[in-house]
User: Fold these one by one.
Assistant:
Number 1:
Amino acid sequence: MGAQKASEDGDRRIGRRALIVGGAAAAAGTAVLARDELARLWWRIPGVEKPREQGAVDYAGARWVAASDANWRRADRPDDFGVDMVIVHVTQGSFDSAVKAFQDPGHKASTHYIVGQDGRVTQMIRELDVAYHAGNRDYNERSVGIEHEGFVDRPEDFTDEMYEASARLTARICARYGIPVDREHIIGHVEVPGTDHTDPGPHWDWDRYLELVRRARTSRA
């Protein structure tokens, strides 16, 4: 009887200890969740924004050239707007003409990145911010836009170097925001509701592009 009582007392002590430890762990977990939620809410307060370094790029292979402030809107993505899409554009002109247009405050449009036929990548707007590129406010807020040097009716403009460089860039964007590599989340400008654009056009090889993105994503996993 005494041995049984001692055992019961021991079990109760163990049970109380487990409850205390478990409760402390749960409280700690709740505190972490609360802290994370407060951090997300903090960036949504008007006038509060994430620290920024002038000339910083989000993609290591990019060169920074700033777009005009009139062609984008300051934000704190993905905290204020979730990013779940990449939109593919074609410049309908040269690389340099696209850069010049995006630096023009009267143009009222710009993408985050431009990829040249030689594979060079220029970033003109931080991924934190909303670029005016899709012609649809909701799509602007939830996407990263990538221009590609060339014309939609000239398949020779879409070079191997361009496809490969753009695929590496898109793979990193998808990895950063957890975007699936598929045609529901990587789309052309022509697929944006309400747009009157036709890019990237019929000569853009979507099967090839998505395969390159998947390979790039896997190689960096």
Note: The beta strands are 62-64, 72-73, 85-88, 113-115, 121-123, 130-131, 143-148, 186-188.
Number 2:
Amino acid sequence: MAATALAGSAVLLAAPAAHAEVVDVDYQCKTPIGNKGAVSPIDIKSVESGGGHKLTMSFQKGVSSSPIELGKGAMKPSALIKLGGAESGDVTVTGPPNSEAIPANTPIKISDLSGTYTPKKSGKVTFTASTLTIKAMGTTTTCTPKNNPKPSLTLDVKAAGGGAPSGGAELPQTGPEDSAVALGTLGGTVVLVGAVGVLWLTRRGQVRG
């Protein structure tokens, strides 16, 4: 019985489930010289960092171009990742300036963008590519997804401080939430062992009688 309870504890303490996929995003960009459009596959990854998650947004194709060459370090990208499900709002992700010159009239390759997401609510949260902003040579280009893309990433998260989804049962917590879960499971083991002990004492008394 103790082994079964401990196995259950291991399941409860497993890492949060995650689902990720590459999603095609049809960006429509408003540039200083007119509108441009391009489709880029977008990948969003997450790595737990302290009480939050470090998000990395990757572009597999360029999404705009410049009529003039952009010298090294001339272009600075940033983007928004839209939250859905248990959370709402946006996470801002940013990236370094271009490490090499970008020739005129060629697709602008966006470097990986990163930022930190800290859960405010517990539950399943989706992460979807949203507005991309490119600043270069004193100008700003804004690119908005046209095709209402689906989420690139879905995570089951826990809010800081052990917040639970609305309506969810929760163990009394006297310490870290993982300890509370383990204590609840191991507590069940103690009760089972106690019952066995009572049964043993009863039988022992019958034998003596």
Note: The CA atoms of residues 40 and 61 lie 5 Å apart.
Number 3:
Amino acid sequence: MEYVTAVPHPRSEAPGSARAGRMSLALALLCGALGAAVALLATRQRWSEGTVTVAGGPFPLTAKGSDVTGVPAALAIVGLAALVAVFAVRRAGRFMVAGLLALSGAGTVAAALLGASDSAALDEKAAQASGDTAATVDALTHTAWPYVAVAGGALILLAGLLALRYGRQWPGMSGRYERGGAPRPRRQARPTDPDRPEELWKALDRGEDPTGA
């Protein structure tokens, strides 16, 4: 005869929560590190190009991402540092660092988008090349590298959002090295055997009294 009970069986959500924590940790590390590397790489590439008219004719000009704006590279470094710092802090500190990580990603995206159509860097180079402070760049074109930096910033932002959502489940950097609060028992010296002269000499070297007095 089977018995039916209305009491629900308890469910254990710990395995699922731990699995989600591990997966989010791996994804955040991948996104954060990859995003910072992509953003830094993109800022070192050519973002725009054009020409300026000089005495000898059109003179080609190019501008790298770092010439246009230094914000994406700086924020990518901040985001990478915040990604590491997430594991060095706990509770409210971890939440604040995760927020900084997300803001670094959002700032990288915004700065790269603003720099995608910027011509100030090439205008400055045009003025220097022509010797005319009023000169501006001609035939201005932009490359796709600013949008690569945007993608890098988006990955950093995703890492920050994952840290905000799942960071409390991640282990701390010092957790694996922490020990229990109980003091470790001291090893007691082994009693010296008076019938073994070598042990008497070792005890004397250690500053011990081999006679046990």
Note: The helical segments are 14-43, 65-68, 71-85, 92-115, 120-130, 145-166, 197-205.
